[in-house]
Sequence to fold (333 residues):
Amino acid sequence: MSKRKNPSDNNNLNADFCEFLMELSDYEKNVSRNIHKFNAYKKAASVLASHSKRIQSGEEAKKLNGIGEKISKKIDEFLNTGKLKKLDDIHNDENAQIISLLTRVSGIGPVKAADLLNMGIKSIEDLRNNKNKLNHHQIIGLKYFEDFEKMIPRSEVRELENVITKEIKNLDPQFTITICGSYRRGRSESGDIDAQVTHPTLKLGDNKNKCHEKLLKNIIMALKGCITDVISMGETKFMGVCRLSNNHPFRRLDIRLIPKEQYYCAVLYFTGSDVFNKNMRSHALEKSFTLNEYSLRPIGVTGIPGEPVQIESEEEIFDYIDYPYQKPEERNM
Ligand code: 8DG
Ligand code: CA
Ligand code: CA
Fold:
């Protein structure tokens, strides 16, 4: 079983439905590669997880936004029989099981997993005997396969946050560091660590003189006490592995260096959850704004986005699009 959390930590009265919906969504993402169905199942799980009542029938579920005929039928089938034929079929499909397993390796996506299966690779052990078929990221993913499957307790993310913040501030106290993702949403455990870093002098376009790249290299150098492997190192994005001490598992760490004017849109985006982001983006569109990880831009009558709005805080983004402010802990959908 891959590490999968319910959309909500606790108090989820519909957790069993959410569990099968999340499993179906993983299947659609990794095996059938049907992004529409993937999104539909995830959205349904999210809606059910935050519903304050135990759902008693498919018909009742169908009244919720995001649950249609097909999912409502699955809920009835699950209530009546305690299982789902579709999931049973998936469990009995050897190829589907192999693709699901291979995609649990960091760096192996659905297409690569299917390729590997076509080459006769069916297990983690097969992968270990065929490293020549893997790229650098996938080799690191395989090397730490067991550790990367372990969730990171909140206390450990906090300790890593302290180390990372201390070392980067040592470089220059004007750096701002925000650990986003599930940690910022207050979750009790996280899959990886998503760090965003900015500096007041960091301007868009600076990278023409390789300024970002040098800064990011300095940051990674400063963190050599806890960073153990580099997966990739771009101009603004580091992907790698860190470890708090010899007694801790190896953890996936991403660090992004972001110009000040894009910082709050990035922090908002990388805080998630992805379902929350999707909802907020479609609300923005209703208000004639386009929102992404870089900027918030008004859409004119021509339908073409204008210049980015200047943003000084996360709250301002909510204000601009008339969306009630939600604290990070309220974005766990
Ligand atoms: P986790 O690591 O504890 O499993 O949860 P997470 O922190 O919420 O997920 P993540 O995969 O690390 O992604 C961090 C945030 O990035 C996520 O909460 C929202 C944003 N995000 C999207 N879409 C996508 C996407 O397609 N891929 C990734 N990696 N992040 C995305 O909104
Ligand atoms: Ca994360
Ligand atoms: Ca991440």
In short: The longest strand covers residues 227-233. The chain has 16 helices and nine strands. Residues 181-182, 190-192, 194 surround calcium ion (ligand 2) (CB under 6 Å). The chain has a mean pLDDT of 94.
